[in-house]
Design a protein that fits this description.
147 residues, Hypothetical Protein Yqey, Chain: A, domain1, Arc Repressor Mutant, subunit A, 2 domains
């Protein structure tokens, strides 16, 4: 079953179950997919949909900090629920240990020796972990390994 079909089935199920948060998240994903397809006049495959969902997870994680600063615990909890729902549509996330192995291999592969080589390493690592790891975590691990 394609990711689009799964999203449609989940939308129907969430409407039947009156699960408002899940319905809103699935609707948001479907709207982003439709927008990209209309803008670029293409039919997105599962990889394209995973890219969209990954971006939405990143946006949600970024906005949580703002909600915490604004002392809006209700919005923090809602956003965390939304992130959990979004993660259900992404491939299984890599652990930090698995990422460290991939990063170390990439550092050796490109012959990186300092933080100046960050771009080379990121361009090597990100395609390998596409949709399975957060870019900021990858960045942090690279910095730890280049000290």
């Amino acid at each position: 079953m394609s990711l689009k079909d799964k999203l449609m089935d989940d939308l129907k199920a969430s409407m039947k179950d009156r699960d408002k948060v899940r319905k809103n998240v699935v609707t948001m994903i479907r709207a982003a997919i439709k927008q990209k397809e209309v803008d670029e006049r293409i039919e997105l495959d599962d990889d394209g949909i995973i890219d969209i969902i990954s971006k939405q997870v990143k946006q949600k994680r970024d906005v949580i900090d703002d909600f915490k600063k604004g002392d809006r615990q209700d919005l923090v909890e809602l956003t965390e629920k939304e992130i959990q729902i979004l993660l259900e549509y992404l491939p299984l996330q890599l652990t930090e240990e698995e990422l460290k192995v991939i990063v170390k291999a990439a550092i050796e592969e490109v012959g990186a020796s300092s933080v100046k080589d960050m771009g080379k390493i990121m361009s090597n690592v990100l395609p390998k972990v596409k949709g399975r790891a957060d870019g900021s975590l990858v960045n942090k691990i690279i910095r730890e390994n280049l000290k």
